[in-house]
Each structure stands twice: as structure tokens, then as C-alpha cells.
Amino acid sequence: MLPKLDRLLSGTSFDPAVEQATFRLAVTDNAAAVLIPVLCREVLPIAKKVKFEFIPWHRGSYEEVTHGSVDLAFGSSTVEAPSALQSQTIYDEQFVCVADAKRRLPKSLTLEHYLKLEHISITILGGIQVSPDKPLAAMGYKRQIAIHVPYFEAAIRSVQRTNLVATVPSKFLAGIGLNSAIRIVKPPPEIAGFRYVMTWHPRLNTDAAHTWLRTTMRQIGEAVAKN
Predict the structure, then answer these.
(1) Does the structure show a pLDDT above 60 at 35?
(2) Can you state the angle between helices 29-42 and 208-226, rounded to 10 degrees?
(3) What is the CATH number of the domain that holds 65?
(4) Where are any strands of DSSP class E within the chain?
(5) Would you tell me how many other CB atoms lie within 10 Å of the CB of residue 95?
(6) Residue-level pLDDT at 7
(7) 87 and 135, same structural domain?
(8) Residue 40 domain flag
(9) pTM of the entire structure?
């Protein structure tokens, strides 16, 4: 704790090549698949003294940020963080729908068609897939959910050889590579994208190591956005 306190008070810069630090980050499987590969390729080789511990995002993640046991939490902008915390967008995301490769579907779905399909829901919070279920509920609509699963990749694998569809982030799908067993279709325009944000406690705003961490994750987000 003392070195961190020293940086907090002095405002000196943080050098990840020579200074030790351990960061604990709460992520969904979406963020894990999109952000961590870039971090491993681009950051770890130069941040020799820094340790990263990624843990699953859950209902209590923002409370852990508040109490200091988690340094950053990553999630969709549709899940509101407590007002006492600070958040920043690191990239914008859009949804795609995935189905079995042999499934006869148009390239773009209408909302009427989308709501008639049976869906795999990737449960993020409160028993629903917050995006797109929360915006749909605000419009008075509800998807037909056949099964709830906790992970996007499980949903993508599970549509194969079924009549089910899953609504997944496009960057997540791109990150796991092309799969000839599935086809990708465009969701209806009512299924809006979302901002992927990182959230932290403002007491860390002047901590040099945490400033470096936020800058690094923001740069990774910018790199992801370009690809």
C-alpha cells in the first residue's frame, strides 16, 4: 500500500517496466475475448513488472470497485454504475444475430421476424440479457427465450444444428474467428448497439499507476474500435 500512497500524494508518473503493480479487473466474457488478447500482445511485453488479474463481472462488481477490491470494472452502458463511480467509454459495439449455417433467414431481420424467433439469451444481470432485452421492454416487446446461458461463446456454439438464434456483440464474434457452422444476419434496427465502458472509483484519479491502467485500457479500446 505504501508505494501506491506515495504515488497518490506525489503525482509522479508510473513506469510499468520498472515499477511493480497488480491490477484486478472485472470483465464479462465479451470484454475478456475482445480486450485481453490485445493486452497480451501489446502491453505485457513492455509492462514487465505489472500483474493483471481478470475476474468475472457479476452483480457485486461495482460494490467491489467502491470498496477497492477491484480496480476497474468493464460492462455495457445499459447497466448503470452507481453515481459515486466514474465511467468512460472505451469502444462502441453493435449486435449481430447468429444462427445455424443451414437456417433460411434473410440477411436483415425485421423486428416482427426477430420477435417470432426462438432465442438463446446470454444472461448478464437479473435473469435477462440486458442488451437487447431492456430496450425491447421499454418499447413493450419481449423475446421468446428458449434457454438462458452465461456466456456468449456457449450461445454461438449452441445455435448450430438448431432453429435457435443468439444476439451477440460483433467484436466478440470477430475475436473468436469465423465459423462455417454458423451464419450471421443483421438484427432489426430497433436492436441498438451500446457503449462498452470502464468504471472506477474517483479516489484513484490521481494515482499514477491507475492513471496508466486507464490510459492503457482506453488505448486498447481504441485499437479494438479500428479493427
Answers:
(1) yes
(2) 100
(3) 3.40.190.10
(4) 21-27, 50-56, 72-76, 86-93, 95-100, 118-122, 144-149, 165-169, 182-185, 194-200
(5) 20
(6) 44
(7) no
(8) yes
(9) 0.85
